[in-house]
Amino acid sequence: MDATSTTAVMSTSNVTSMTTTATPEEVYDPLWVITIRWIIGAIIVFVGSIGNVMVCAVVYKNQRMQTAMNLFLVNLAVWDILVCLFNIPFTLIYNQLKSWPFGLFWCKTMPTLQVMNLSASTGSLVAITIERYRAICLPFTPPLSKFQAKLIIAIVSMSSFLVALPEVGAYKQAPPFGCMEVFPTEDLRKAYSLFLFLFCYFLPFLFIAPAYTRMILKLWQEDRDESSPSSGVTEDPKNQRRKRNVLRMMVIVVLCYAICMLPTYATFLWLDFGLSGT
């Protein structure tokens, strides 16, 4: 469930939409670049598909593992599987041919699926953060049920589709590369790019970062209380260890996602706001 595989289509589409004066013959890559690109792409598709399918299979076969958090992780895995099976292969072929041979339907579908993946992945991380916060900082709050988790997943998926819907209208088959993002006005394109940055990155992590900080401080305080002879804390040590391990894993996942996606959003904001002003 890594975020690096989600950047391919956006980087290709946005950059090509700005290079309207180039022709496909002028931008062919050297052989070593093509070879490295295909090798890396094949590794990402293979490892990403197998790993995420295994996550889904393990949770599906084990009823005890079908908790709210694991269902959110499965949702992340499903979106990454879609990226591995569709976005990456299409992007590799597009980069190789320097033109879009798949027709109008896929020209609109691939970028839409890409933005849906970004939005749904961030939404799933927010949902996981809420579930972990309830378990650690509000221990007497009843855990989310499977029905509630599935309802949240449905809301996240529908919201992601609505967020990505402008891509359906923006992408058109046009020369020189065959599939390009064309908004009616420059201001509308900038507004949409800024909206994606705020909705899919800045605002979610503005919530996630303080929440995980609070959870870490909570567990640290509980460890201190356990070491005090007069504390009277009797929580199962195994449960405490499990909470710490899960929290550590999710902090790593969130940090990796944030670090991997920051250059992508920074580049798009620079292309839309910085480059156009020079």
From TrEMBL:
Pfam families: 7tm_1 (PF00001)
Subcellular localization: Membrane
Transmembrane segments: 38-60, 72-93, 113-130, 151-171, 191-212, 246-271
Domain G-protein coupled receptors family 1 profile: 51-278
Keyword Transmembrane: yes
Keyword Transmembrane: yes
Keywords on record: G-protein coupled receptor, Membrane, Receptor, Transducer, Transmembrane, Transmembrane helix
Any GO MF annotation of the entry: G protein-coupled receptor activity
Ranges in coiled-coil conformation: none
Any single Gene Ontology cellular-component annotation: plasma membrane
Membrane topology per record: Multi-pass membrane protein
InterPro entries in alphabetical order: GPCR_Rhodpsn, GPCR_Rhodpsn_7TM
Organism domain of life: Eukaryota
Similarity comment: Belongs to the G-protein coupled receptor 1 family.
Name of the featured protein: G-protein coupled receptors family 1 profile domain-containing protein
Species name: Pocillopora damicornis
